[in-house]
Amino acid sequence: MKTGLDRLLSDPELRAPLKGRRVAVLGHPASVTADLTHSLDALAACPDIRLTAAFGPQHGMRGDLQDNMMESPDFTDPRLGIPVFSLYGEVRRPTGQAMGTFDVLLVDMQDLGCRIYTFITTLLYVLEAAAEHGKTVWVLDRPNPAGRPVEGLTLRPGWESFVGAGPMPMRHGMTLGELGLWFIDRFKLDVDYRVIGMEGWEPEAGPGYGWPLLEREWINPSPNAPNVSMARAYAGTVMLEGTTLSEGRGTTRPLELFGAPDIDARAVIAEMQAFAPEWLAGCTLRDIWFEPTFHKHVGTLCNGVQMHVAGPGYDHAAFKPWRVQALAFKAIRRLYPDYDLWRDFPYEYEFGKLAIDVINGGPALREWVDAPGSTASDLDAITVPDEQAWIEERKRFLLY
């Protein structure tokens, strides 16, 4: 399998339109070639590419900032001598000054296939800026490690945020290049846009189902995205960021597990199995103990649940991470009706809204969890139509 970056580097004809133009790169630590050379270094070594600037998304070009809502500064690359502008610092959108440093922006970011992962919002923002300033954007496409399945509620009008760029479900099942096409169509952007597509990506093929396990090394696109298991679970476990439960930050398996000092994990699993066993297909749940070294419940022994999605119990088509995590919340609410579950803080600088609602693009998931008599069918009744509508809507933008 070849990524868009590898194809661009190996094919002079693909690079020909870049000759004589100033080129910038939007990337992060996982922006690498097949031999793990960073895209900045690989592109700078091309004699027919004039690299003049770079941009970094959340967590920075270097990927050095662990937690969410930690801002990165601008800096000058010490080897290449070019400015590296932060799109998660003083600004979220590129300034006019930054836009003046290039003619063509190459977007080379490994995404996780989830609406809340902020790289896709950054893509929308740079497309809007490129339309305003008459710049060209190329996406050097990469695999969606979560594959093609779709799941979750669609973001509702008025709930747009840095973790909600547009009306799509939590697990969108598209590549970054495909999403760029959808953004341009959805927001009616007049921008010179091109996707340098992948060769040989087979999102339905095992064992990777989106990620070419035997062909490409996994590199964290953000500090707490350490492996494919996390990428598969993330469309569900990301909701933990809006709760008082630990999502495993401060452990070696972040965003594959959840827990707290005051829950009985075995009882939670049993309640999940009793309430909606049909939602648990495709993965294996295991009760665990852990003590976070930082973040929520730091230094405190927690009882929790790990979601296993890499072994013989994994079924890619059947696995529904968003529903599994929603079911865990429901089980905790049923076992502990007064549990202080929802975390109240300005998530991604959104004030006056509960974090769990910002994450889900509306209050419907939280309201379902908190409603005493709600059933699994009640959540399916509002979610399945969203999922079906998205599967139909995205068809004309799929490239693979």
From TrEMBL:
GO terms of molecular function: peptidoglycan beta-N-acetylmuramidase activity
Domain Peptidoglycan beta-N-acetylmuramidase NamZ C-terminal: 233-400
Gene3D superfamilies xref list: 3.90.1150.140, Uncharacterised protein PF07075, DUF1343
Residue ranges constituting the Peptidoglycan beta-N-acetylmuramidase NamZ N-terminal domain according to the UniProt record: 23-228
A Pfam family hit: NamZ_N
Protein known as: Uncharacterized protein YbbC (DUF1343 family)
Organism name: Brevundimonas alba
